Request: fold
Amino acid sequence: MNHSLVRRVLTLCAMVAFQVPVIASSDELDDIRGQLRDLVQRVDRLEHENQVLRAQNEVLQAPASRQERSPPEVPAEKVEAASWASRVAFSGDLRYRHEQISDDTLNAQGERTADRYRERLRARLSARAQVTEDLSVGIGFATVEGGDPRSSNQTLDDVFSRKSVDLDLAYFDWAFVDGGHLIGGKMKQPFFKPGESLFWDSDVNPEGLALAYKRGVLFGSAYGYWVDEVSAPENARTSDTMLYGGQIGARLPIGESNLVVAAHYYDLSAGQGGAPFYNGNSNGNTTVDVGTPPTAVLLYDYQVLNLMTEFNSRWDAPWGAVPLQFWAEIGQNQDPDDLDTAWAAGFAFGDAADARTWQFGAAFHSVEKDALFAQLIDADLGGGVSDVNGWIVRAGYAPVKNLVLNATWFINHRNVDVPNVVGQTDVGYDRLQLDFNMKF
Reply:
């Protein structure tokens, strides 16, 4: 309704009322004039209230109109940075270790090796980035002493010296088919190992190309790794020491338990007659001297067939379900006629992972002198050499998640079959490790 128009009409009527000839009494005219004045005032008030309501309505509608407007545009570089960050995951761990070593080996003067006590640190940090839906890359760094492929430990020594950090991982992982992966670079071992097997040191990150496959109960892998690149001879291509291998296996459900069976084979190509050793040490494999000055080279090839099994179940203990594991494996080098077999077996109760969980296990290992390529076997078992046997006992407790306290005791014998340089056989070697492990 147009209140201004109404007001003008009423005003006009009032003017007419005041100017028309007198056709009624003066009292009646006064009454009419009063009513007209009241109507004009009421119209004024209504017009004022209408203006106020219109202003309030505009204020109330302002947020809604702002919400209807498109949100402010975020700069493209910020959107891209946020997207990249969401595709990168970091992980790492820190371990502090107290270690005691008792070695009965005699030196050239017939004196027993002194017991050793040391404190050690290991720190590792890695990142994994999802480049595309099917392609990821990983890179990792770890503390190390001299580039040792079987250890990331740093001994607390040398007057608070700086500790070295080296490239530990650098790989791509392409999921080219459902369940299939092509991995290239310096990578984690892409094959299954049973229980606490020490045939491969867990710190060894091989370098080369690998295929890994897992579908249903079946799994497998194949790889070609560069061990030692030789550049001097004209036939350097064929002289490069390579490690070719593969594995096939199955994880079979048995009720709420499962049984894993697998076969693994590797061949150290062009290793025989060469010296593919870290730090010039054959780690117990048989060598012969050639050339002038004499150089120690491998006497045998290493064509190792490894069969393994692992059974996983749970024990319903009075205090709750406890994981159980039993495992065994045997390996044999197909080249030598003797001292060519390695075997191991063990068990584990519990799993020190979540808060207030524990684990206990034990295993026995026997590695004859030329059963395995000794550059790969665990660096702590008998000091990291072949021709060794003995027990490994482990216990662990996690007071909180991501913090585990471990104790490991190696009760081993070295030079089991072949005497050392001073004629000793069956030499006692004990190693105690107390670890404080933190993961993030």
